[in-house]
Predict the 3D structure of the following.
Amino acid sequence: MKSTTKIICLLAFICTVSGNVQAQTLMGFSEEGAARQLKNEREFDQLLNPANMDQWMKHLSARPHHVGSPYD
């Protein structure tokens, strides 16, 4: 393996590991508060329906909708 490839692999591994560590803690939250916040976010994510999001995206992009317009 070339040294450049090794460095890229090492950086990718470090980013992955550090991302997993940060996912378990939230800056500005206590440990208990972070756990509660992450639980709320998981519950919210379960309510999202990709088909519904697709429908809204089509609606929002169908016509211009600047503030105060009839389509807004």
Observations:
- Helices lie at 3-23, 31-47, 50-62.
- The chain has a mean pLDDT of 79.
- The chain has three helices and no strands.
- The two ends are 56 Å apart (CA to CA).
